[in-house]
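Researcher: Please predict.
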Amino acid sequence: MDKLQFLKLQNDLLEEFRQNIIDGEIESSEYLLEMLCTLHYISYTLYNWGTNMHFLSLLNYQCELENEVRSRSESEFTEILETADTVFDDSIRLYNSGIDHLLNYLTENIMTKVKYNSKQYKRDRLLEASRVLNFEPNFKPVILKQNEVSEILLRRIEHGNALEMG
């Protein structure tokens, strides 16, 4: 039973740490990327630990005890070992859920900043365009007669610089 108590202590500490990171995210989004990397690293490490022989034997021991308890209670017997990958499955699932939560939060922050900056850019471009449109040229447009336009088009066609009419 000492083995399972040690495992429970580990899982409780991991859950408390995860919860502190997720709760800290609300207070300080300054370290959002660091928190995201921490959650990912711990999830990855837990998965690797779960494939370690020591933790695999703990998983086997835990499943045997749970199956024994279930068989005593005469409930429907299911083999727990078949569905479990590691002893840290619940912790890994919670850490991955935390990663998803932080990624959503980070994405929303980025989208808010992009929308704000695009609105600023659009306003600046509109101001610049209005200045350009109000620009008074210092030359007068030339009005061409019909035959002059025809001559210009013929010259362009002769020199291989045809206009596409569509």
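Model: The first helix runs from residue 2 to 27.
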